[in-house]
Each structure stands twice: as C-alpha cells, then as structure tokens.
Amino acid sequence: MIRKQVLVALAGLACCSVAQAQLLDPSFETLNGGGTGWTNWTTFNNVLVESSIAQSGTRSARLGGNFTGPFNVSGIYQGVPASVGQIIEATAFFQNPASDPILADNFAVLNIEFYNAANQQISVKEMRAADVNSPIGVWRQVTNSAVAPCDTASARIVPLYVQGAFFASGSVLVDTATLAPNGSSNVQVVQNAGFEVEGYLPGWVTFGNAFREFQFTHTGNGAIKFFGNFNAPFNVSGAFQTFCVQPTQSYTVGAWAGTPVADAIRGGDFAVLNMEVFDAAGAPINAFQDPNNPGGALVNFTSVEAVPTTATPGVYTQVFNTTVMPLNAAKVRVVLLHIQASPTAGGGSTWFDDITFVENVPAGCNSIDFNQNGVFPEDQDVIDFFDVLAGGTPATCDATLGCQDIDFNNNGVFPEDQDVIDFFDVLAGGTPATCGG
C-alpha cells in the first residue's frame, strides 16, 4: 500500500510547467564578429542588419530580393527542440518599410519548418506575413502554429522574403520573434490534407496515376485524382503519408471520396482507404485478417472501401478506417488506393479530399497502474508518474507496453496540474469529473 508520507512528499512536486527551449536573441540585437549578421540566427541570400528601425531594442532584420530568378527567396532562421504532437507556435513582427516598400508580386511569409534527427526537413507550415497591400511603416505581429509531425526532432522559425516574377524592388523588416510549444494535440498533421497546393502534391508519396485536380472537389480548390494504369488486372494507383502511433492505441483515418460524373468508374474499378502498420525498424507487422482472403495468412493492413464499384457519380461520401495498433507498432502508413480491376473493361477515376488522422482518446482517466506492470497500487507507479512528467523513460515501465502517457485525464491537454490532481484522486479511489473521453 502506498504510504501517506510518500503521497504528501510527491504531491509537493505537482508543478507541471516543463521548461522549454526559447529563441536566443529574439529581437536581433547580438551581432556576429563582422557586424553583418547575428550570432544566434542563420541567414541566407539578401538579409541585412537594420539599425535605424526596430520594433523592440535597437535593431531588426531587413530581407530583400536577389534578382536571380522568379520567386527567389531570402530568409533568416533559428530552431528549437520539438517532438511529435506538440503544437508549435511562431510569432514575429513584420513591417512594410517606407524606405523600400514591397512592390508588385513580392511578399513575405512566416514559416514553421520541422526536421527529423538527421536534420532532414519533414514538413513546412506557411503563413503570409506581408505583401504590397500591407500598410506602410506599421509593425504588425504575425502568428503561425502547427502540430509537429511524426519523427520531429526540431522546429524552425523561418521569416522569408519572396521576390516574384517581375523582379520588383522592395524589402520587409522583421523583429521580436518567438518560437515555442503551446500545448499538444492528438490530431497529427496531415500534410496537404485538402490538396490545395497548386501543381504538385507535397506531403504525399504517390505511385501509378495520381494527380492534383480541381474539377471535382469536396471543399476548396483541389482534390487528388486516381485512375488505372491499364497494364494488368487489379493494378493500383495511390498516395500515402506516414504517422507515428503507440501500441494498443486506437487511431482513425477519415476521408471524403467519390467518382465524378464526367469520368465515372466502370468495369469493376473501386477505391479503398487503408492503414498499413510497421514497427520502429520499418518492418511490416502482420497482425490483421486479409479482407480479400478470410482465413488466410495475416497481413499488415486494414482496409475500408472508399468508393465502391456501384458508387453514385458526382457525390462525395465520408469514410473512416479505425484500427487498434498491435504490439510493437510504431508507424502507420495511410494509403489512398485506386484499384483497376480490368485493364480492358475498367476505367474512370476516383477522387479523395479532406483527409484526417486522429488518435482516439480513451474515455475516463487512465488506470492507476501507470507503469503497466500489472502490480497496483504500488509506490513505483507514483515514482514512474513523476519520472515521465519530468521527461524520463523509467526502466520499470513494462518492456512491451511502456508507461502510460502523461495526459492522465485524457482531456488532450498536457502537461498540466490537473493531470497530477486526477492521478492522486484516482489513486485514492475517486472518479474525477475532469477526466476526458
């Protein structure tokens, strides 16, 4: 039985404010040895120190065009550690300066970029910050936020100046920046979820015949279109994204899908929404019954029909695939898949739009067996709870399941004092009304 003294001593530690890395020199004051740049910021192309105009302090950064080609960029950046699921928020003040105002199709953006442990870029979230219509000589704060995707190790704040196709002159001033986590989310980022980026499909790996089109959409101005390869029975075209998952947790991918009137599927063609499961090393985990071979060998995917052969043309239908992850699951590949049943009789296209991917938060609070070793209540659960709260990975957690996550009350907000309060409430036999689900 857990001793009262232990509870009292540990309860005194119930402060959930976890220290986070902050930007160094957020107001661009500390110059490098040559005085042409900054000690803590990395610049590229046409970026200058501005010493006469500042939003705070005495300096700011001036970004301008390079006159090297259409839509060339200049920028400045700094990064901080980040991890999957964190909501990263970036802010900065921008000014369209009277001394060299933005002209023509030039513009500035405030980007958040995510990188993995190998310093490879995973994704970018862009926010327009200033253009020719921005007021002259006025500092305006711009805010951008994004959920860190799978494999995130760091995030960067990247103010950029883009010189357009007319090679017009102009510049933008940047000052007083912030970049920090602002909570967390069980909704992982689906890159280009609505296929709104013109011309290509960033965030998606495609195969076969997959294109971004605009003639048949659910929302916005884009959707992804698939059609057959006309080379073999049951040939496939598709696109996928990869997400991080936890063993034994439930996840749902959602999509809107349909076939257009002008190019309706025929000859037995159809489309499915699949989830393929892999371990941390990238090996498939064969833990599911094959929907096409009941009673046969297990496969590493689950499948839901998204556009049946009998689908009504011109109508989008929302479909969901919910899957509980097997042991050792680490990543899921969400696959939008078009199947052409016959290369001679088949034809037409299927379209997908507005993709979502979420972890299904369990109802109520977590179990008091925090380290999931099957022994509870015990002092070790309390010790491990505070160890994980402080960022640790206790060796006493179950070797397969690990410890529970720190969002003890499953309300989607963590870290927070309420998780600690609810942990001790459940430990004492209570059922807190603050538990989510």
Shape: flat
Q: Return the CATH topology of the largest domain.
A: Jelly Rolls
Helicity level, as a percent range?
Answer: under 10%
Q: Which CATH class of the largest domain is shown?
A: Mainly Beta
Describe the structure.
This protein is mainly β. It has three domains: 42-184, Galactose-binding domain-like (Jelly Rolls, Sandwich), CATH 2.60.120.260; 205-359, Sandwich (Jelly Rolls); 364-427, no CATH class. Helices cover 7% and strands 37% of the residues. It is built from three helices and 20 strands. The chain has helices at residues 4-11, 379-389, 417-427; strands at residues 42-44, 47-50, 60-64, 72-81, 86-95, 107-115, 121-131, 139-147, 154-163, 171-184, 205-207, 209-213, 223-227, 235-244, 250-258, 270-278, 301-307, 317-324, 331-340, 349-359. It has a five-stranded antiparallel sheet with strand order 1-4-9-6-7, with no helix packed on it. A five-stranded antiparallel sheet has the order 2-3-10-5-8, with no helix packed on it. Strands 11-14-19-16-17 form a five-stranded antiparallel sheet, with no helix packed on it. Strand 6 (107-115) and strand 7 form a beta hairpin. It is flat. The protein starts with a helix and ends in a 10-residue tail after the last helix. Mean pLDDT is 89; it is low at 1-19.
